[in-house]
C-alpha cells in the first residue's frame, strides 16, 4: 500500500515533515500523540526545530509494517490536510 508522503525504509513507514518553526512542529506532534492514543499505536519520532521525522512499525509483530501502521499514517496525513 502506498500512502502519499510516506516511504518504506528499514521495515518502517517513514515520513519527514518540515514546518515553519518549532512551535508549529510541536503542535503537530501533540495532535499526533492524541490520535496515536486513539489508535493504541505509538510512533517513533524525532523533532529538530521545525522538522519532524516519524517512523511507524508494529513492535509486537517483530517490528514489521502492518495495517496498524498504514491506518496511523493515513490519520496523520489527515492532520496535515486540515
Describe the structure.
Helices cover 40% and strands 26% of the residues. It is α+β, with helices and mostly antiparallel strands and 82 residues long. It has one domain (7-81): Gyrase A, domain 2 (2-Layer Sandwich), CATH 3.30.1360.20. A 4-stranded antiparallel β-sheet has the order 1-2-4-3, with helices on one face. β3 (44-48) and β4 (51-56) form a beta hairpin. The longest helix is centred in the middle third of the chain and has 18 residues, at 22-39.
Which key terms come to mind for this protein?
single chain, 82 residues, alpha+beta, Gyrase A, domain 2, 4-stranded antiparallel sheet
What's the β-strand tally? 4
Average pLDDT, all residues: 95
Major β-sheet, in short?
A: 4 strands, antiparallel
The fold-level CATH name is Gyrase A, domain 2
How many domains? The number is: 1
The residue ranges in which pLDDT falls below 50 over 5 or more consecutive positions are none
Order of helices and strands: EEHEEH
Specify the CATH homologous superfamily. Transcriptional coactivator/pterin dehydratase
> According to CATH, what is the class?
Alpha Beta
Return the CATH architecture: 2-Layer Sandwich
- Please give the oligomerization state of what you see: single chain
SS-derived structural category: alpha+beta
Q: Report strand %.
A: 25-35%
* Rg: 12 Å
Number of helices: 2
Helix content: 40-55%
